[in-house]
Amino acid sequence: MIEPPQLLKQRLFYRGRVFNFEVSRLRLPNGVEGEWECVRHPGGALAVPITNEGKLVLVRQYRFSLQGRILEFPAGTIDPGEDPATTVKRELEEESGYRAKEWQSLGKFPLAPGYSDEYIYAFLARDLEKLETPPEQDIDEDLEVVLLSFEEFEAAIARGESIDAKTITAYYLARLALTSGS
């Protein structure tokens, strides 16, 4: 078994609304000491929603950090003590105006392990119904709902359209689940 690094000092530089930023001084098993920065995040949950007509439900959302809009699956941050399945059901309704009757876990994956401890919990959402009165979108979100076929989405990836990594990863997890029949 590999020995874990020894924590020598830890400093919290920023406590934010959603995440914290800390710096840790570590001594690695090989004796090297250094500082590592980490964004501490509660995690997120994402839906890969597929309509009964076989279309993917995505949102084109403005992201301040990128100063532009990107194509994403509906997703959100997990509230303290909340189950990821609860998070994803809420976010699907708020962001897309759809509700799913059938849910399947696609597992979880680290989003950006080079600088964050965030995990994304991905779910396949099927048997969708359009809500007559969708819940209010979060006030800090600027998004539009986009329906694409699997082929149109793959073409958008190939064109280099602005699509985030969690969406592309979850899409391929969903494709694997759909082709394996699980």
UniProtKB/TrEMBL annotation:
Name the needed cofactors: Mg(2+)
EC class name: hydrolase
Q: Name one GO molecular function term.
A: hydrolase activity
Nudix hydrolase domain mapped to chain residues? 39-170
What is one process in the GO biological process aspect for this record?
ribose phosphate metabolic process
Q: Which UniProt keywords apply?
A: Hydrolase
EC number(s) per UniProt? 3.6.-.-
| A GO cellular component entry from the record | cytosol
Its protein name is NUDIX hydrolase
